[in-house]
Design a protein that fits this description.
Prot_kinase_dom, disordered C terminus, Transferase(Phosphotransferase), domain 1, globular, 3-stranded mixed sheet, 42% helix, alpha+beta, 328 residues
Length: 328
C-alpha cells in the first residue's frame, strides 16, 4: 500500500488538524483530496493523518520539472477546466466555513495514472494541510507506510509568495491579521497566475517570473521581499501577459487576467469570494466550450520576460520546444 502520512508531534497543531478534519471528511467533492483515516498513538500522543498516495505529484512538480507541451486548444481547454475544478473545491471548503490556509502549488495535486489521457489527469486541492513549521513543530511525510523510513521526504514550509500582502511575514509589517476565506482567494489567484504563465511557455517562464519578484526566503520569521512589494510584481506580470497575442482582448485569458487584476489580487474589500470567482470561471469555461477561439486563438508565441532587460528569444524558445511529454 502506498500512502502519504502526516505526523503531528505538537499537541496544539494536532488538535487543530483534528478539528479541521471532521468537517472536511463530510464533504462530497471530487476536487478535494481527502484523508483516508486518522489516528493517535499512546503514550506519546502523536497524531497521524493518512492520505491516498498520488503517483502524479503536485502542480509545483508539473510546472517545474519540464513537463510542458506547446499550447493547443486541447491543452488550454484542459487548463481552464482545472481552474474551474479547483474553484469548485475551494468553494466547497468555504461553504462549510473551512479555510485552507496553505494553498500553493505544492498543495495542489495531480491525480490520475501517469501517461494517461487528459480526462484522466486532473488537479485537486489537498484538503488538509499542516500549518507552517514555525507554528506546529515537525511534520514528516512518508512515501510508503508499509516499508522502512528510508523513503521519507522532509516537509516544506508554506511559501509566503502565496500569502496575501496583509498576512505576509515581514520584519516591518509583522504577522498580519487573522486568516480569512478571502486570503485563500488571493492564494488561488497567485496559483492561477503562475499556471497561466506555465501553460503559455513552460518552466523557464515560471522561473523568470519568480525571479522577477526578488528574493523571497523563509528563515525563521525573516522574509525578504522586493522593495516595491507583491502587488507591483503581480501588476507588472499581468501587464506583460496582456501583451501576448494569445492573451488578446476577446480571449478567455485576457478576461481571466482582468479578473485577477481587479477582483482577486486586490485589496480584500474588492476581492471576490470563492463563490463569485467560481461562478465567473465556470461561465468562461462554458463560453470556451461553445467557441474554441475564445480559449485558443492560434496566435504566434511571444517570449515572456518578467525581469528587466531583453530575453534571449531564440535560445529560450528552442528550450521551450525541446521539452514536452504526455503530462496531461
Amino acid at each position: 500500500m502506498h500512502a502519504t502520512l502526516y505526523e503531528y508531534t505538537d499537541q496544539p497543531a494536532a488538535d487543530d488538524a483534528r478539528e479541521r478534519l471532521d468537517p472536511i471528511q463530510l464533504i462530497k467533492n471530487r476536487n478535494i483530496h481527502k484523508p483516508l483515516m486518522s489516528f493517535e498513538t499512546a503514550p506519546l500522543g502523536r497524531y497521524y493523518v493518512l492520505f491516498p498516495w498520488t503517483d502524479c505529484g503536485s502542480l509545483e512538480e508539473l510546472m517545474t520539472a519540464g513537463y510542458w507541451t506547446p499550447p493547443s486548444s486541447e491543452v488550454f481547454s484542459w487548463g481552464l477546466r482545472q481552474m474551474v475544478s479547483l474553484m469548485d473545491g475551494l468553494k466547497a471548503l468555504h461553504d462549510i466555513n473551512v479555510r485552507h490556509r496553505a494553498l500553493c502549488p505544492t498543495n495542489i495535486l495531480l491525480v490520475g495514472r501517469p501517461g494517461s489521457v487528459t480526462k484522466e489527469r486532473r488537479l485537486v486541492i489537498a484538503g488538509l494541510q499542516p500549518k507552517p513549521l514555525r507554528e506546529m513543530g515537525k511534520v514528516t511525510y512518508f512515501r510508503t507506510v508499509t516499508n522502512s523510513r528510508d523513503k521519507s521526504v522532509a516537509g516544506t514550509v508554506e511559501d509566503v509568495r502565496y500569502q496575501d500582502d496583509a498576512r505576509t511575514l515581514h520584519p516591518i509589517r509583522g504577522h498580519g491579521g487573522p486568516f480569512s476565506r478571502k486570503s485563500d482567494v488571493w492564494s488561488i489567484g497567485v496559483i492561477f497566475l503562475e499556471f497561466i504563465i506555465w501553460l503559455f511557455q513552460g518552466v523557464e517562464a515560471i522561473d523568470n517570473f519568480r525571479e522577477s519578484s526578488g528574493e523571497i526566503n523563509f528563515d525563521g520569521y525573516e522574509v525578504k521581499l522586493q522593495a516595491d512589494g507583491e502587488n507591483e510584481v503581480f501588476s507588472r506580470a499581468l501587464g506583460t501577459l496582456r501583451e501576448v497575442p494569445r492573451c488578446a482582448a476577446g480571449t478567455v485569458w485576457r478576461d481571466l487576467i482582468d479578473i485577477l487584476d481587479n477582483s482577486v489580487l486586490a485589496e480584500e474589500s474588492s476581492r471576490y469570494t470563492s463563490a463569485e470567482l467560481h461562478a465567473r470561471v465556470e461561465k468562461m469555461a462554458m463560453d470556451a466550450k461553445a467557441d474554441h477561439s475564445y480559449v485558443f486563438n492560434g496566435q504566434p508565441v511571444k517570449t515572456l520576460c518578467f525581469k528587466p532587460g531583453n530575453p534571449d528569444t531564440e535560445s529560450t524558445q528552442t528550450k521551450y520546444l525541446s521539452v514536452g511529454g504526455n503530462w496531461y
